[in-house]
Amino acid sequence: ANTLRLYLTCIRNTLEAAMCLQNFPCQEVERHNKPEVELKTSPELLLNPVLICRNEAEKCLIETSINSLRISLKVKQTDELENILTKKFLRFLSMRAEAFQVLRRKPVQGYDISFLITNYHCEEMQKQKLIDFIVQFMEDIDKEISELKLSVNTRGRLVATEFLKQFI
Amino acid sequence: MSAIAVHQFAQCITCHAWSPDHSMIAFCPNNNEVHIHKLVEDKWERIHVLQKHDQIVSGIDWSIRSNRIVTVSHDRNSYVWNKEGADWMPTLVILRLNRAALCVQWSPRENKFAVGSGAKTVCICYYEQDNNWWVSKLIRKRHDSSVTSVAWHPNNILLATTSTDGKCRVFSTFIKGVDTRGSGTSSAGDTKFGEQIVQLDLSFCWAFGVKWSPSGKTLAYVGHNSMIYFVDEVGPAPSAQTVAFRDLPLRDVLFVSERMVIGVGFDCNPMVFAADERGLWSFLRFLGERKISSSGAKYGSQFSEAFGKLYGQSKHGISNDIGEASRSRGGIHENCINCIVPVKKEGQSTNTRFSTSGLDGKVVTWDLENQGDLSEYL
């Protein structure tokens, strides 16, 4: 739990520095405005990505550009069951990315879930609240997965008990 | 408190400019229009809406003597608006740009204006009487990336530009027929159009917000790496000072006097930089009060379901009350300040008033008259 605090504080501080976004029209295509972190066609507009690792299994990649920011998370998965639960749960959230606005529909290669924050999000919403949301999300993910695992195990036990009762 | 007036004009303001007598303000509320508001008996009323652009208006400048407004937009167009009777009539500007225009400024004599663009060029526009339009001359192939900010030297010839390639450059914009050679410094008179006087490669990161001091002796610009650069003796042997500060980067600067600069940016609070008697610049303090934030109550997520809790949490209202307090931010502006404009009083050489506008939609006017510790620098 101690390392979780440090990990989240580190991510929070990095996000406060990285979330300095501004409206920037596309240099490649006229009249267009695209998130430069996704496009990656103009290297001068991208900043160095920062990778924050809690341990081998958990890490967070923060890539920034002049008008957009991408945060990719790899969540801790200790056994096969957690692997499946994480994948299903995060896929469920990603498919409903429109409701979250800052979520990316597909995670970046090598990670479990990704956020894409653009300058428009920073204009409509407060930066501090966005950072709070991301950090809160990371805390809640761990809790949710544990709860799901617990309920799966509990249910499995109940079902097995009921099933085997007929053989007593 | 040095803020003397605060007004919320829109949800988000891209840029703003004042009329010559400061009774009217023109701003872009983050869309393709320019709204002009007038102060009528202590209340701001919207009197005009200039609608000609198709995309967001990225720069507005209002000339003081000729009372003309120039607007540039991401749709590659620019218009010069003249007041005819009760309406503002647009005049076409032939910009010849193939990417968005990012910034604009009238020259000190108001016979030219400069536009920085995403096409990595700078357009210098002057008026052609015969066809009643403004034509442009382009400074091409000098910038490696978008030109984010332009600033005119008081001699009406030299122009400083900053770009997202991290460099600040000074060019000569002498145009035959518009500018006159003769009196003035020899360095400005001998150069031809588009000639690069000096290129400053001080920043590792994008450069914004370049401005000249009132006499034209010093140049200041900011880099996204939380540094501000001051350059003296711009010419063959410039001397530069860099001031690094520990807060978030700045977006724009303003010279209040020869020895004091106000910087505004992502900290939502204007920062004061001053030079001492030896000419060494340093960060003095923040202008506004800094609020120490306290974590608020959790916003109404009453769902017990796992994903329901995430669904119900609104990004607007949630605040982390487990002990991770948000960092304190400037009190008056709630979001990034991206524009700072002087509010010159009639017949005053030093400027103590300026206004800032930002992504929170507020325009705040500040006055430095009552700030005792700053008066020695004015």
TrEMBL record, chain A:
It is found in: Cytoplasm, Cytoskeleton. The keyword Cytoplasm applies. Keywords: Actin-binding, Cytoplasm, Cytoskeleton. The keyword ATP-binding does not apply. It comes from Actinidia chinensis var. chinensis. This is Actin-related protein 2/3 complex subunit 4. GO terms for molecular function: actin filament binding. One of its GO terms (biological process) is Arp2/3 complex-mediated actin nucleation. It comes from the Eukaryota. Belongs to the ARPC4 family. Pfam families: ARPC4. InterPro entries: ARPC2/4 (IPR034666), ARPC4 (IPR008384). GO terms for cellular component: Arp2/3 protein complex.
TrEMBL record, chain B:
Belongs to the WD repeat ARPC1 family. PROSITE patterns: WD_REPEATS_2. WD repeats lie at residues 50-82, 140-172. InterPro entries: ARPC1 (IPR017383), WD40/YVTN_repeat-like_dom_sf (IPR015943), WD40_repeat_dom_sf (IPR036322), WD40_rpt (IPR001680). This is Actin-related protein 2/3 complex subunit. One of its GO terms (molecular function) is actin filament binding. The keyword Repeat applies. It is found in: Cytoplasm, Cytoskeleton. GO terms for biological process: Arp2/3 complex-mediated actin nucleation. Keywords: Actin-binding, Cytoplasm, Cytoskeleton, Repeat, WD repeat. Component of the Arp2/3 complex composed of ARP2, ARP3, ARPC1/p41-ARC, ARPC2/p34-ARC, ARPC3/p21-ARC, ARPC4/p20-ARC and ARPC5/p16-ARC. The keyword Transferase does not apply. SUPFAM superfamilies: WD40 repeat-like. Functions as component of the Arp2/3 complex which is involved in regulation of actin polymerization and together with an activating nucleation-promoting factor (NPF) mediates the formation of branched actin networks. Functions as a component of the Arp2/3 complex which is involved in regulation of actin polymerization and together with an activating nucleation-promoting factor (NPF) mediates the formation of branched actin networks. Arp2/3 complex plays a critical role in the control of cell morphogenesis via the modulation of cell polarity development. GO terms for cellular component: Arp2/3 protein complex. It comes from the Eukaryota.
